[in-house]
Structures are given as structure tokens and as C-alpha cells.
């Protein structure tokens, strides 16, 4: 449970992300801006890539990973051994249960949606069409869940493979942010 811990990206993680980006660049995918979580496991890679591609880089604190409170930095196996029922409830019903002193799923969703509202406005102001968003697994799972119109309790079954690019379309209807999956990046 890394949550808001500001860990560095591992060498393997860096290589995974670099490989994924290189594949998309080879396919002539172009972005107008790179937007990243400020946590260094996202931000350092995003900064290096923005410099390499000569793109603007924006940091958005609202797209950080979920805050896991007392579980921050604790292996799920350890939590399972000490609080199996609480962990099981969190995995099965994340809308009803959260880590002790951590962020609820509702709080997390509201924060992330606020961040994407900011991103939407920035993209409109600058006439940017495509952004590479460098963020965390929980954020990706949430956005995928929303794009697929799944129940939020299905959040933890959504895909979020490390070092993978997910393509989502961001729109605003009646001042509400909406997400949909794109088949092509």
C-alpha cells in the first residue's frame, strides 16, 4: 500500500514506462502536454519525458494515489495477517470500508474528479487535444470504472497494469466531467 508515500520509481518501473512510451512514439502518437501526479514515482519520469519531447509539464496534486492512512507502506500480506476481516471488507466493498485513518473511496473520487476538472479547463485554455497523464493504479482503476459505467464496488477488479498506457476521452457535460474508453490512443 504505497498511497501517498513518495517512493522513487524502481528501475524496472522506469524501464516499463520508457518501453511503453517508445512504442507509442514509434507509432506516431503525439501529445500536447504531460500532466503528472507530483509523487516522484510519476513526476520524475514525466519530467524527463517532457524534457525529451520538449512538451510542457504540469503537476496536479489531485491525481495522486488514494491515501491509505494507517496502511501506508504496509504490505497487504501483513494487513491480511493482522486485520483479515477489515482488509477483506475493503477489497469487496470499497465504497463502504476504507483503511483506518485513510481516504474513503468517495473522498478519493471527489478529489480525482476535481483534478480532472482542472485538467479539462487547462486543456481548453491552451487548445490542447491530447495529454499524457502520468498517475497511479488507483486513479486508473477509478477512471476505468467510471468510463465503463461500473459500480464503484467493482473498482478493484478494473485493470491497471504497471507501465501500461490507457486511453480515455475526457468530456464535460453540464459542468460534469465524463470519461469514456477510446479504442485507439
Automatic annotation (TrEMBL):
**GO MF annotation: an example:** phosphatase activity
Q: Which domain of life is it from?
A: Bacteria
What InterPro entries does UniProt report for this protein, alphabetically? His_Pase_superF_clade-1 (IPR013078), His_PPase_superfam (IPR029033), PGM_Phosphatase (IPR050275)
Q: Which GO terms describe its cellular component?
A: cytoplasm
Recorded protein name is: Phosphoglycerate mutase
Amino acid at each position: 500500500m504505497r498511497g501517498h508515500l513518495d517512493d522513487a520509481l524502481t528501475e524496472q518501473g522506469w524501464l516499463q514506462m520508457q518501453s511503453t512510451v517508445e512504442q507509442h512514439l514509434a507509432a506516431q502518437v503525439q501529445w500536447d502536454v504531460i500532466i503528472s501526479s507530483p509523487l516522484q514515482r510519476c513526476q520524475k519520469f514525466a519530467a524527463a519525458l517532457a524534457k525529451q519531447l520538449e512538451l510542457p509539464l504540469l503537476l496536479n496534486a489531485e491525481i495522486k494515489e488514494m491515501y491509505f492512512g494507517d496502511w501506508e507502506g504496509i504490505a497487504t500480506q501483513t494487513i491480511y495477517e493482522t486485520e483479515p476481516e477489515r482488509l477483506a471488507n475493503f477489497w469487496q466493498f470499497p465504497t463502504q470500508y476504507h483503511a483506518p485513518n485513510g481516504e474513503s473511496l468517495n473522498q478519493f473520487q471527489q478529489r480525482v474528479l476535481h483534478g480532472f476538472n482542472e485538467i479539462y479547463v487547462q486543456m481548453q485554455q491552451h487548445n490542447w487535444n491530447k495529454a499524457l497523464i502520468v498517475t497511479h493504479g488507483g486513479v486508473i482503476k477509478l477512471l476505468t470504472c467510471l468510463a465503463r459505467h461500473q459500480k464503484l464496488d467493482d473498482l478493484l477488479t478494473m485493470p491497471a497494469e504497471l507501465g501500461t498506457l490507457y486511453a480515455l476521452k475526457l468530456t464535460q457535460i453540464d459542468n460534469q466531467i465524463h470519461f469514456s474508453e477510446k479504442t485507439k490512443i
